[in-house]
Every structure is written in C-alpha cells, then in structure tokens.
Task: structure prediction
Amino acid sequence: MSRSKTSPAHTLSSIRVKLGRSTRPELVALLTALLVVALLLSVLSACAPRVASSTSSNSSLTGTVDILTPTGSNKFDSNTPLNTWTDMSDALYRSLRTQGFADTQITRSSASTLSSQIDQISRLITTYSGQTDRHSRVLLLAPVRAVDTDESRAIVQRYGDLVTQPDMTEDSVEYKNMSTSDQNQYTELTEKLASTLSKAQKMGMTVVLMAQKVPGFTENYYISFATAQSIARIQTDNLVKKLQLDKATTRDRVAIEMILPMNTGSEFTRTLFSTAWKILQPYFTTGVAYSPSGLLNADTTDEDWRDVTIARDNAESVTAALESRLVGKTSDGSASDMLESLQSPSGTPSGTFLNVNGILAFNDFSAQSVVSALSSIGFTGTSASVNPNITLESIVKTLTDNADVRKARVPAPADSAFSANSSSSSYSSSHSAAASTSSPLSWPVVTGYGAAIHTIPDIVNGKVWITTMEDRNASARAASALVKAICKGETTTTQLAKSVPDLTDTTITVSLVAVNADNLKKNLLDTGYISAADAGL
Result:
C-alpha cells in the first residue's frame, strides 16, 4: 500500500490540533521551532544545485565535470545566431556521455550575472573540499560578463553567445565610456572571480575556460570559439577565393565594399576591419581590386577603419550607405574620379549606380540589410552570376538560354585551405561587366556570420553567398575528449596530442565553418543544427 508524502507545514498543523490546549506551551513552542527548521531545510535542499558524484556504477571513468555557462540567448528570435550557450551546454553533455561519463558525474548550471556564477563556483569548492576521494574534478566555465554594455549586448545579438568579446582594460574605449560605478563593479567582480578560481585550483579542480579568459588568472586549459579575427578572416579568405583575386588584372579589376556597423563597439569593429584589410590590401596596392566608393585604396591603413563604418546595421542605414557609395559621387555631390574612370566612351550620367563584385557584411543581420539594399537599388540575380567556379561554357549557356540564375550552382566555400581551379576565362567573363557603369547591376557576393535562421532561405537561393559559424559539436567533442584525458590522468603533451583533436599547447581551437547552398545539408541539416523547415525547404 503506497503512502502519500506529507509536507512539514501540514505536519505542524496536525500536531497543533492533536496537542490541544492541555499541552504545555513550552513543548508546543519547541516542536514548532523544530518543524520550522525542517521546513526550511526541505526548501533549501530543493533549491540547491545537484552535486556530481565522482564515481558511478554505470561508468568506468572516475571524476566529476561541472559545466557553468551564461544564460543562453533567445532562440525564438530568427535573427539570433545559431549557437547559444544553452545549445553548447547540451552538446557538451551529450559528448561527455558518449565519452563514457555517467549522468551522475555531470552537473550543468547557468547564470545571468557574474556574481551568481561566482556563488556557484564557491558552492562547488565548499562541497568538494569536504570530500575525501582524490578523483579528478573538472570545471568547464564560460564566464558571464562582469558588466553588460550596449556594445557587448550588440556583439551577442549579431555574433552570438559563444563569440569572444574584446578584453576590457582601463585604456579601452568601452571601459572609459562606462560610469564610475560600472567600472568599480567590473574591477571588483573580475578580481573576485580570479580569486575564486585560484581557490578552486588549489583545492584540486582543473579549470577549463571557454570563450573568455579571466584577467589575473591562469587557466589550466582554454577552449576558443569565434573571435573578431577568425570571423573576418574566414569571410575575407572565401571572398578572395570566389572572386579569384590572385588572377585579377588591372584591366579587369574587382570591386569590393565593406559594411561595418559601429553598434558592436570600436574595439571589435576595428579588429574586424584590420583582419580583413590585412588580406585585401595587397590587391588594392597592385590595383587589381578597388572600392567603388573610393573609401578603400592603396594608401588605406588600419587607422582608416572608421571610413567604412556606418552607425547602425538596420536596412535603412545600410541602404543609405550603399546608395551613397555606389552612386559614384563625392561628398560635395560631384561625380567621383572613380566613376569618370569607369565610364564608357559615350559617357554615363553621374547618378548611375556602379556595379560591385563583393560585399563583406561580417554578420548575417547586416547581410540581410545588404540584400534589402541591393534589391531596392536594382541589383538582380544571385551570387552564382559572379561564380568563377562555373566554366565559361556553362556561363554562356546560362546567358543564351536566359535561364534563371537562381537555379545555378552556388560555389562551395572553404573553411581553411583554398585552391583556385577555375579557368582565367571564367574569371574574365564574370568581372568584365562589373567595371562598366552601363551594364546591368549584377548581384554581388555577400558574406555573413551566424547562420541565423532568418538568413537561411537567402543562403539557399544565393542572395547571401556564405554564412559562417562555430561548429559547436566539434568543439564539444574536443572538450569532452580533453575532460576524459584529465580524469584518466593522461595529460602529457604526447598523450593529449593523440586523444584531443584541435589542441595546441593548452588551447582548443576548432575552425569556423563556411556554409552555402551546396553544403548546407551536410553542415546544418545532417548535423541537426536546423530543420528542413528552417531552411525553407
């Protein structure tokens, strides 16, 4: 016969009734106090986080793994980049289970403030300090931002939870823009986190930081995700490959523009520019690449990064920027030298828009705004129309048959190594029209980052050539392999090199992934990152 559970509050009421008026007041008071304590203990135990067990009958591995992350972004917003901390925590848990850890050996917690996260770490230290076993204890920690600024929130909104934010120093613009109270809070919480993590290490915990490092603290291992450098590099490298800048000549120059919204802050935005410009500058110096607006040229340096920025990344701001840049006018309204140098012999009105071959938009939200702007200006087609990987014969056939270019095969992007297999004749055909103001406005190559759901349909139809993203499953596999090696005590350089992928010294760095129409199924659908409905299929 089953017995129903009785709450302490109900028990207290029952005792009061049964004792009645004949019972001594002192006894009633004592029993009441004891039951109140029991009630409080019951509530506290329900609220306390589960503590991992270092052993399990279901696993041959010993040790515990505690995963602490910030609260994940809102997945119901279709403009949110694909990877959130909630997704990453899930991926880590699944990979750890695959490695052989039991459920009881893993705990997961999230926090919306750094103060709460420090409390979580302190409770783990207190709990493990009282245990006598010598099993490994691994802390996988993604630190919460000490102070949220408009810039840090914008970075998360446009580039996702996992992206590494710029270091906050007393010399940084964002730090100087904070109020005195925020500056004090940042310093206090950052120092407290470093101190708490040092205590965890002294107690025997192995600290693995994710995405952000902690000033004043040296972690045991670090898992790197996307950075401003890696985001700019993968897009620019792919743009160079697709437009075949290595085969470009001064007779068939390649037109490139950058769209850099300032809402993500000066430090992050400047790094995006300097990384992309380091790759592009040689082509501008030799004259095979140019900017229709004239904002980028052979004399441009890293210090000129503000020249290509815009205040916001909404469609209105991007449209205004592109119209101003591609109309071929200078700030005083006269026709630019660039426009005049590109005019056909018969001449072209100064208000005619110029073609552009490639636009680095840097994130998917900006890319969507670029798509809207290009459509309103009058650009037609898709990125396949400037595809150097399609043979000359296929291009001629497409033009002859007046086929819908949206059905053309969009070229595959590369994640790291690049090779140019296309013929120079294909290059010439795809770029000869770009240098003429009298030709139709052909759709350029547009790049982004985040794999936001709202962008996927335009990836499928080629309006956005590539989006780029973290491969969170690969990062989770590498992280779980590292945790397993730590718990088995196999952490020599040789042992880690054999068991942990993408590990260099003490840092795991998984390459970002470039996604376009050709590999979308492999990289997004087959991995379970999105559904066919998300892709608009």
